[in-house]
């Protein structure tokens, strides 16, 4: 059981932490960006000043109309075309990303998010590595599944790998609350048990 737990820790660490490296590295490289963030319904939630989206007068609360572009959530984004609801009117938009250099503040935030996730992952891994149990497994799964919430998904190059990673991490991110609840319930049950009394 212990050898299986340690194998899972190593594999999970390589996959989860390794897949975050491109997302961290982009803050020190010139990466493409359209400057627009949307939710899953196509509603624009943020627009970066002087970005490609800002140059096209896209503002928060605008809506990308269905059918949503396949690559709307792709990061880094490719050029995309869509119909936009803006100020009560519908207009076509051709959004072409622009090169962008991250600010020192954005780099600091990226490092802090990465370090936060490392602390979570290492705490869960240490408990499971030392003594595998149902409680340790649920805590490790909770810590590991913070990957999506803390770091998101950034993957240049292969579309297949990007969408696979996004689906995988979104699934784990959605299960994060279940892992947390399971850990809390197990901890509550075990803390309520009387301690073994040995002569």
Q: Features of this protein?
A:
2 domains, Pdz3 Domain, three-stranded antiparallel sheet, single chain, 7 helices, two-stranded antiparallel ribbon, 199 residues, alpha+beta
pLDDT under 50 segments (min length 5)? Answer: none
The radius of gyration computed from the alpha-carbon positions, rounded to a whole number of angstroms, is: 21 Å
Mean pLDDT: 90
Q: How many E-type strands?
A: 7
Task: Provide a short characterization of the protein structure.
This protein is of the alpha+beta class and 199 residues long. The protein has seven helices and seven strands. Helix 1 packs antiparallel against helix 4, helix 4 packs antiparallel against helix 5 and helix 5 packs antiparallel against helix 7.
Could you characterize what this model shows?
This protein has helices spanning 2-18, 21-25, 52-55, 104-130, 134-144, 146-151, 159-191; strands spanning 31-33, 36-38, 44-47, 63-64, 80-86, 89-95, 98-100. The model has no long low-confidence stretch (mean pLDDT 90). The radius of gyration is 21 Å and the shape is elongated. The chain is built from seven helices and seven strands. The strands form three sheets. The protein has a three-stranded antiparallel beta sheet with strand order 4-5-6, with no helix packed on it. The protein has a two-stranded antiparallel sheet with strand order 1-7. Helix content is 52%, strand content 15%. α4 (104-130) runs antiparallel to α5 and α5 runs antiparallel to α7 (159-191). The chain has two domains: 2-27 and 102-191, no CATH class; 31-100, Pdz3 Domain. The protein has 199 residues and is of the alpha+beta class.
